[in-house]
Amino acid sequence: MVRRGVVGVVLVVALVSAGVALAVSDPNDAEGTRDPALFTRMPGFHIYRAEASEFDRVEFMVGPDKTQAVEGQRTLVIYYANEGITLPSGLQVVRNYLNAAKAIGGQQIYAYEDGGTEIATLKVVRDKAEVWVEIRAAGNGMYNVHMVEKQLMTQAVVANADSLAGSLETDGKVAVYGIYFDTDKAELKPESEPALVEIAKLLQRKPALKVYVVGHTDNAGAFEHNLKLSRDRAAAVVAALTGRHGIAAARLQPFGAGPTSPAASNLTEEGRAKNRRVELVAQ
Fold first, then answer.
1. Which candidate, 69, 21, 73, places its Cα nearest to that of 52?
2. At 198, is the secondary structure helix, strand, or coil?
3. Cα separation values, 47 from 31, 91, 148, 245, Å
4. In the beta sheet, which residues pair with residue 176?
5. Could you give phi then psi for residue 272, rounded to 5 degrees?
6. Within 10 A of 35 (CB to CB), how many other CB atoms are there?
7. SS3 117
8. CA angle at 76 for the pair 71 and 79, rounded to the nearest 5°
9. Are residues 146 and 90 in the same domain?
10. pTM given for the model
């Protein structure tokens, strides 16, 4: 495989502070379009077309004949060169984006050449999501940036009180999904309320029931830190049930298991998401 040299690289500026993207515009940009959140663009290019969807699925190349499906907020931006500029090679475009991704802690997952088009899959891990990016550039005056911000959908449907009761009776425990915390924090998010309501209904219908409220984490980070975080999250659930829903504190005992009892493999984000959970265990 013949690779072209990289000459005169101009680093694409990446997002370096959370929440603010460095905006770049061009008079030739298609109306209502803008650069994706993480990156600016190659100098002398304008946006020919852009599209976005709140939740979609994209297959990213991660190896020879191997793809990985990523779901989340999708953005596709197609750039065309303005007249009169010196066209960068496809490799030059790809390397610019790779350097920008590395500057904010990202990495290259896979890169290859297909019929003169340079293609690279990049990944950047941010506080609340993984951002997957595919760059396609042929050195012919156009290139594409296809990005998916991978994050969990808010669990709008939660198990009802009857389902929770059934699992407790048959298994002695039940995982309650739909309880949310910000990354590395123990304050309950407002969207946790539907799940808390169903737990309260369960305890109100079964006045003799006492449970351990057990917090679980994935294995990212230090073990002792995760143990404390899981205890604090369990305590936050107990505080909400007693303070807002009138459940007697004597019926609830918080406990933190940290990463010691995974529900799935920690090797994938889907598995880690399942492991970040709260369980009710019958006393």
1. 73
2. helix
3. 9, 20, 18, 52
4. 278
5. -60, -35
6. 21
7. strand
8. 160
9. yes
10. 0.52
Token pair recorded at residue 6: 């990289």
Final residue belonging to a domain, choices 123, 150, 177: 150
From 185, 268, 273, 184, select the one nearest 221 (Cα to Cα).
Answer: 184
Q: Token digits for 140?
A: 């012919």
Residue that has been written with the tokens 């425990």 in this structure: 173
Q: How many domains does the chain have?
A: 2
Q: What would the two tokens of residue 117 be?
A: 């088009």
Q: Residue 27: phi, psi to the nearest 5?
A: -60, -20
Residues with pLDDT less than 70, the chain: 1-24, 126-128, 151-158, 269
The H or E element spanning position 225 is helix 223-243
pLDDT tens by residue, 8-61: 334 444 443 333 333 468 999 999 999 987 888 999 999 999 999 988 999 999
The alpha helices in 106-221, defined as continuous H runs, are: 161-171, 193-205
Query: Among 150, 185, 207, which residue terminates a domain?
Result: 150
The 8-class DSSP code of residue 17 comes to S
Owning domain of residue 71: 45-150
The DSSP-derived string for 232-252 is HHHHHHHHHHHHTT---GGGE
